[in-house]
Amino acid sequence: MEHAVILVYSTSHAMRIEKLLATRGTVCKLIPVPRHLSSDCGVCVRVSRADIETARSVVAESGIEIEGIHEIWPI
Amino acid sequence: MNRNPNLIYLDNAATSWPKPPQVAAAMTRFLEETGANPGRSGHRLSVDAARLVFETREQVARLFNAPDPLRVTFALNVTEALNLALHGLLRPGDHIITSSMEHNSVMRPLRHLEKRGVAVTVVPCSPEGFLNPANVESAIRPNTTLIALNHASNVTGTLLPVRAAGEIARRHNLLLLADVAQTAGAYPLDMQVDNIDLLAFTGHKSLYGPTGTGGLVLGTRVDESKLSALKQGGTGTRSEREEQPEFLPDKYESGTPNAVGLAGLGAGLDWIMARGVNSIRQHEMTLCRKLMGGLREISGVTVYGPRDANLRTAVISFNIAGLPPSEVGLRLDEDYGILCRVGLHCAPAAHRTLGTFPAGTVRFGLGAFNINRDIDATLAAIQQLVTDHCSHGTRRHPRLLHQPRHAD
Ligand SMILES: Cc1ncc(COP(=O)(O)O)c(C=O)c1O
Fold it and tell me: Which of A2, B175, B393, B402 is deepest in the core (most CB within 10 A)?
């Protein structure tokens, strides 16, 4: 499946976004930040590409500043 | 829950005990099943650990009606949280207002900062520990930036007018810092209604968590760019940068947190919210009224603090004429298995206010797990102590004749 990841500044931000996505019934997974996207060693929030718009609106609603949303493909 | 039937624990104002059984269960589960470093590594156990810490953050925000769980910063205890607030906010030339009922966790950082050019006004309280908010307002100067008050005294249980002081702070564009060590979980608290800008809490008292947990909750009026961090270090995020992050909560949370403790605190918070703060308060105050009333009927016993239960928490300070507090404490422990705290309770200013400095008092701190029978047995023990003292004097217990300790 094709995915997108939400890069965040804080692990706590990832947790918050995970909870908000869950309230919308959107499944996500917290994974280590893919090295080609960032040198940050923390976690990011992975969602299905189909859920990118939901993810964007959840992030906007939360007021959390994120580093970006990136599409990723299986390697 | 392992309640030793031979002990009556009346030292909940220092640390609550026993804890709800869910607390130890959550901590055991964490150590046995989760165990990893919260959020540092990104594998499933690390993510699970981070999630547990975050859930406790959410619980704290819910209990205090904080604006956002991300504005909850965890610390080792309320002392560390108060140090973060005071050292982080106050600059030389600033003026701060506090009360004469404060714990040394506020007084000592302030005396330290005073030597570095922060002006400190300690507003006197009445002999029962009451603070008149008008005296706070009249102490305001052009350079005042902060009002710091405990919500309830750890010596007498006297409730301080935090809400009124917060209103004054808003009117004068100041911040209000509340030390809620004695009220969190035992008295209704709402950051928005009570006008609290910085709420400092400890996990091991009436939140029924383990020691090593606490924190500082920031209201929306606090600009975090003006609150400097106490320490800098790894946060598991933005590792490519050598500067401390500026976003919350990472700015104030360097180093691996007490995740096992926070798992326990989360279980304590769950337990409080399921039972309800009001019902816990009602239970404690029923016992408190009975204990205060019973103590007052024993001749030679002086009870300090407010008589009206609505104006206090379930912390009772008293003395027995002719018996130093340290002797009362030792006899209660050795002869009756009743555990309490004697002396100055880390609050010399409060004891000066009550007129009990330097000998201090005997303090009973009730908790959610005390029962009626504890109160009956305690009153009988105090009655017996007084009777023995009157008929034989303290000489009957020569081993107990030692100088009262004046240290905290
Ligand atoms: C009002 C008050 N402030 C501060 C403290 C310090 O708490 P801790 O030792 O958890 O930092 C206590 C209890 O000891 C307290 O009752």
Answer: B175
Residue B14: per-residue pLDDT:
97
CA B244 / ligand 1 centre spacing (Å): 29
Q: How high is the mean pLDDT of chain B?
A: 94
Q: Whose CA is nearest to atom 10 of ligand 1?
A: B77
Among the partner residues A16, A18, A43, nearest to B42 by beta-carbon distance: A43
A55: pLDDT strictly greater than 90 = yes
End-to-end CA distance of chain B: 31
pLDDT tens by residue, B307-340: 999 999 999 999 999 999 999 999 999 999 999 9
CATH of the domain at A47: 3.30.70.1530
| CA–centroid distance, residue B350 to ligand 1 (Å) | 13
Q: Does residue B3 sit at the A interface (CB-CB below 8 Å)? A: no
Q: Is the CB of B12 under 6 A from ligand 1?
A: no
Q: From the list A9, A64, A65, which residue is nearest B237 (CB)?
A: A9
Give ∠ CA B72-B74-B75 in degrees, rounded to 5.
140
Mean pLDDT, residues B357-386? 97
Mutate to test the pocket of ligand 1, among B17, B79, B206, B344 (most ligand atoms within 8 A of CB): B79
Question: What CATH number belongs to B21-275?
Answer: 3.40.640.10
DSSP state letters, B126-160: -TT----HHHHHHT--TTEEEEEEESB-TTT-BBP
Q: Tell whether A31 lies on the interface with B, counting CB pairs under 8 A.
A: yes
In CATH terms, the fold of domain B8-18+276-400 is Aspartate Aminotransferase, domain 1 (3.90.1150)
Write down the mean pLDDT value for chain A: 90
Tens of pLDDT along B76-124? 999 999 999 999 999 999 999 999 999 999 999 999 999 999 999 999 9
Q: Could you state, in order of their start, the residue ranges of all structural domains in chain B?
A: 8-18+276-400, 21-275
Q: Does A15 touch chain B (CB under 8 A)?
A: yes
* Exposure string over B75-108, b if 16+ CB within 10 A, otherwise e: bbbbbbbbbbbbbbbbeeebbbbbbbbbbbbbbb
Domain residues for the domain of A54 are: 3-72
DSSP H helices, B65-194, are 78-89, 104-114, 133-138, 162-171
pLDDT confidence tier of residue A35, bands split at 50, 70 and 90: confident
Can you give the pTM of this predicted structure?
0.93
Q: Is A19 helix (H, G, I), strand (E, B) or coil?
A: helix
pLDDT at residue B406 above 90? no
Domain count across chain A: 1
